[in-house]
Amino acid sequence: MIRSAVVDDVPAIRAMIRELAEYEKVPHEARATEEQLREALFGERPAAFAHIAETAEGEVVGFAVWFLGFSTWRGVHGIYLEDLYVRPGARGGGYGKALLRELARICVERGYGRLEWSVLNWNAPTIAFYEALGARPQDEWSVYRLTDGPLAELGAGGPEDGADRADRAGGADRPDRA
User: Fold this and answer.
1) What is the pLDDT of residues 17-26, one digit of tens each?
2) Which residues are catalytic?
């Protein structure tokens, strides 16, 4: 069964985030606390949403955390799936597909234009699962990310070297490119 998460699910979501980080070989990067998740998912202005997969007996076996994006090309929202995880003992039971089906249903119901996510290139079983559903990789796009020191540095006004030259060369200061 798939249902919207409730605040009492936060400890289970946090535990599964840790399990996912272990699987992805980056346990040190899973730093979100239960308090942070509670605020992000159930605070006054939720930043993200979550769905839970559970067995007929009520055991939580998976989750999906997602948030809204917006396509300037399509002019409508879409869902960005931040994390999809099903516990190893429950894999093959249809829970991952059911979670994705629920998110696709929300997209269709609300008129959203896309459901998208990232997957690690080495995760062949998951890639095969996604492709069997009809999802296709966006090979022409590369994901970029700023975190920690580089994010703080840029947010504080730096770096002032090669990025400025690249900005000018790329035309970001031209009105037709902004």
Assistant:
1) 999 999 999 9
2) 130
